[in-house]
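so i finally got all the pieces together for this one. its two components total, 225 residues if u count the protein bits. some of the lines might not be protein, just check the labels. i wanna see the whole assembly predicted at once instead of chain by chain like last time, that was a mess tbh
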Amino acid sequence: DGGITQSPKYLFRKEGQNVTLSCEQNLNHDAMYWYRQDPGQGLRLIYYSQIVNDFQKGDIAEGYSVSREKKESFPLTVTSAQKNPTAFYLCASRLQLTGTGELFFGEGSRLTVL
Amino acid sequence: GQQLNQSPQSMFIQEGEDVSMNCTSSSIFNTWLWYKQDPGEGPVLLIALYKAGELTSNGRLTAQFGITRKDSFLNISASIPSDVGIYFCAGQRRGNTPLVFGKGTRLSVIA
């Protein structure tokens, strides 16, 4: 089935450790996005990529890094510089050429820093 | 970054009641989208609106793209327990710019 796969679903890490969240899509979508969700805060954009080997910072990029070496993959690294990394992370993608804005989401990864 | 003003923040309703929520912005959007999120899952697209004044239905859900292009609303008729979740509005200004999201409306349905 076509879709967006995020892994792991749950992740526990000690403070000061870098962690990488995986996002893979087989929808042949051009653009991929990472959002962070905190209770009562809605969805805040971390990074996005519209083509391979290119990405842009979103509203809350500090303490995060990404790469886009392949069209189907957009991993997010939460670095030790991120002050409050415990959150629910959502990856999304869309077919850029249509420009219609319809974003499709993965099931999310919940990161807890102990 | 800008977020949309979504209200109400939360709602508690009886099963069978109708629900209305809305989203407003100080700037114009060319596309409005409504998503629903179940606990621990990613949001799922409910309705997409592309034209000012457009009224679109999806089963018991109806959404409208405001004439001024600065607002949108979502109605749910005859609510049922599985309507429980968080509903998000999202807008796109132009072209391929990222979506801007509201903070969500948390809906609880009492059977």
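The mean pLDDT of chain B is 94.
The longest strand of chain B covers residues 85-92.
anyway lmk what u think
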